[in-house]
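INFO  loader      accepted 1 record
INFO  loader      residues=117
INFO  predictor   begin
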Amino acid sequence: MLTLDGLRQLLAEKLQALYVHVEDESHRHAGHRGRHQGAGGHYRVQVVSPLFTGKTLLQRHRLVYAALAEQMGQSIHALALQTYSPEELPASEMSHIEIRGRNGYPSEGREKVWQLF
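INFO  predictor   done
INFO  writer      dumping tokens
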């Protein structure tokens, strides 16, 4: 079974990520039609990687899915991705970026969510 730390580490290694944050949102999909025992989790992932420099959003997402190919459909059922190149975020802001919810506002009770490797 894939843990949050294992998922963070996998993304950090395969994407040469400077920052990774993973949030397990599986509990929000308990009644989801495709959600059943062993179907894998739902995760919100934020990654800052130099590999994303000059890439389109689609190309970045393909890199993430390629990095997680073995886990997709097994340990992972769904991903919500936010991908950034280092140039897109000033270093002074990387330590206090907030997770943005679906409505664009910061999620309640969370600050300094990026995990530095």
